[in-house]
Amino acid sequence: MLKLDFNKEYLNDFQEEIKFLINSEIRLKIIGCLYNSAASIKQIEDKTSYSYSSILDNINKLEQRKFIYNIDDKFYLYNRTKLKIIHMLNFNKSAKFLRENVEYLNDSLLDINIESTNDLSALEDTKLIKTNNIELFKVIDIFKRSLMGFKYLKGIFPYFHPRHEDIISYWVDNECSVELILPEEVSHAVTDFIKGYLPKSNVKNKDIKLITNDINIEFAFIVSDKCLVLAFYHKTGEFNQHAVLTSTSGEAIQWGLKLFDEYEKLCKNYVYMDDIVFSEDKGV
Question: Is 270 exposed, middle or buried, given 0-12, 13-18 or 19+ CB atoms closer than 10 A?
Fold first, then answer.
């Protein structure tokens, strides 16, 4: 469960352990020598260009930090060390994301019990965008742009966008895939708008699917072939419309798709475009 209460000291300590390994070529070489099998200091010396004394000094440091252990003058990696090596970059990237956004995250309601949040490394290059006295609608405009001009879109929304007319009409009139998880009242508002809009336009797109958020998902996000956008509630329970996290990286988009898929499995069946258009005929 993602319940964050991070402080900068914690995050700095977290990265220090990673830096201890990656900032020393000799320590990385030693770990590389021990990754697949145990070795003595002499064997490590033979495999590297480092002196016996330098290897011994760093072996002692690695032992003190509980990265390796010694049995009969041969050194072994702890299993947890191997895991750290495998995930080292992911840990470092996650810590960078959390440290750079610690104030925003600590002010946000983050109670997300979902597997995707166990690894936040894909969000390393995410940017925090906030409104200011000059650009009061900056975040709203970011949401609007992200909701148009895409090939596919998946998302979760807690509210009806104030400029929904342009957005929904774009979905209806263009060849694009739209899958949304919405609160019941927002879902009804979207379907009512579509029903009212359709007589004025030829329906070009039927690839629109809505699903009711009946599990109280308390954040908003959009993922498309263009970008990922994330927004959260304040801890007071009010939705924060003044700040968003955004990224256009492929890793962040893949993370967002995984996040959506996990929530999709928790919700009920979709309402498809045909169900919306012909609901009266079907008695829906």
Answer: middle
